[in-house]
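Review form for a predicted model. The reviewer records the input and the model, then writes brief findings.
Reviewer: anonymous (R2)
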Amino acid sequence: MTDQQEQHTVEAEFEITDFDENVYDEPSDGPKMTRVTIRKRYQGVIDGTGVAEVLTAQGGAGGGYVASERIEGTIDGRQGTFVIQHFGLADGDEQSSDGRIVPGSGTGGLAGISGQAMERRFQVLTLTYTL
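Model under review:
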């Protein structure tokens, strides 16, 4: 493995700068379904922005979501963009969120990026990637 192929794990803090939720199905019984656009500002090991389109199912005791997020910024001094496909579930207080970098989605200095993502802490993206 060369230096360019080493696996790295970073924790990237972010803040949500915009949250736009639209309900597209709300039955009298069962979870409501929404589409949410979330905009983020990453600072630290990832310096840049993210925009995610999220589809949710939100019930009283649990929920789930799928999302595609494009991150534009700098990682390890390399500037570009890439897309993460996220999914998550909530069961009461238990929550999990995982995802993968979409193959071939990296551009610029991030072309060829691959790996996985997860959120185990509030507003912290853990990214394990190879460049």
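Findings: The mean pLDDT is 93.
Further findings: The CA atoms of residues 5 and 85 lie 22 Å apart.
Recommendation: see findings above.
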